């Protein structure tokens, strides 16, 4: 049902709703916007529309990115951050909050700490809703902007040629890598998962990849796999997702294990033509000394993110 609504009412709830066809048409639209930003903004396709940003969890990048994407397209923004202080604090349900916003706005972008919250909200809405992160669940627009980054940086045909993508860090709790694995599974890629034993990619993701005949290898360090990597996707080890008595010890052990430095890239013979990505914020996983390397794509990735979200907004409101 979700995939059908993509045609009529284009919610963006989960990476699973995308297939190769609608991914490629979305990438094409985003590339057109990117190549002719002046025209895309002059046309003001969102003129007269209001986008509500409803964020129950802190966010700098995702909310600013959606905010600027809307403004550039001529739309306006109702920004509700840190919603804990409003009616929600009085016990209002998420469903009632979004229905109220729907009477003021044309589209809702939601970030919420509970897995499945965006899907639940979509069931009571007639206007489109975008999931901007539901706890440790998914972050589909991040996965789409990651795909767009690969498409722009390595070329449109690179995706069809069979890239090797290596994901590094906390693969258990990182919602970005869960959504990205799903989106990448539509292309003939090879995946390497590099993480400490207790932060491995969840079984349900590995099962989905196996069903799609994607080749997956797991490692505890980069030593053997960095040299064949086309895309190194580095993630933050998320302190807020560690619970229990050993939380601090486990967090520190995991955080220090994988730091990308110019020396490491050289020592492990990383390719000349490859990219290093990171959803940001980074807390020391990539040495700032690496930022000036042309392979460091993470700040360009942010720009692509805004453009991809512009494409989603155009698609959802036209």
Describe this protein's structure.
The chain is α/β, with parallel strands linked by helices and 318 residues long. 40% of the residues lie in helices and 14% in strands. The protein has helices spanning 2-7, 20-35, 37-42, 61-72, 94-102, 117-122, 140-154, 158-161, 175-184, 203-211, 247-255, 262-267, 298-317, and strands at 50-55, 76-81, 107-112, 129-134, 164-168, 190-194, 215-219, 231-234, 275-277. The protein has a five-stranded parallel beta sheet, covered by helices on one side. Strands 2-1-3-4 form a four-stranded parallel beta sheet, sandwiched between helices. α4 (61-72) links the parallel β1 (50-55) and β2 (76-81). The two termini are 20 Å apart.
């Amino acid at each position: 049902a979700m995939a059908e609504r993509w045609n009529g009412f284009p919610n963006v709830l989960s990476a699973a709703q995308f297939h190769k066809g609608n991914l490629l048409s979305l990438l094409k639209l985003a590339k057109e916007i990117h190549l002719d930003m002046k025209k895309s903004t002059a046309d003001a396709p969102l003129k007269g529309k209001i986008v509500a940003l409803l964020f129950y969890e802190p966010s700098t990048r995702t909310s600013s990115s959606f905010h600027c994407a809307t403004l550039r397209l001529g739309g306006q923004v109702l920004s509700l951050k840190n919603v804990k202080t409003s009616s929600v604090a009085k016990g209002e349900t998420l469903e009632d909050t979004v229905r109220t916003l729907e009477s003021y706005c044309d589209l809702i972008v939601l970030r919420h700490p509970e897995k499945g919250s965006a899907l639940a909200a979509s069931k009571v809405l007639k206007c489109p809703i975008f999931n901007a992160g539901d706890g440790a669940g998914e972050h589909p627009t991040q996965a789409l902007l990651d795909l767009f980054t690969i498409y722009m940086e390595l070329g449109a045909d690179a995706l069809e040629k069979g890239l090797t993508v290596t994901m590094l860090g906390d693969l258990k709790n990182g919602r970005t890598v869960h959504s990205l694995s799903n989106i990448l599974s539509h292309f003939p890629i090879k995946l390497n998962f590099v993480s400490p034993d207790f932060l491995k990619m969840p079984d349900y993701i590995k099962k989905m990849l196996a069903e799609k005949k994607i080749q997956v290898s797991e490692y505890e360090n980069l030593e053997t796999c960095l040299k064949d990597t086309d895309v190194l996707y580095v993630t933050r080890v998320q302190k807020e997702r560690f619970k229990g008595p050993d939380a601090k010890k486990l967090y520190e052990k995991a955080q220090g294990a994988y730091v990308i430095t110019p020396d490491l890239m050289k020592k492990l013979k990383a390719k000349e033509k490859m990219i290093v990505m990171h959803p940001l914020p980074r807390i020391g996983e990539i040495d700032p000394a690496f930022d000036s390397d042309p392979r460091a794509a993470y700040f360009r990735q942010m720009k692509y993110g805004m453009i991809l979200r512009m494409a989603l907004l155009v698609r959802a409101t036209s």
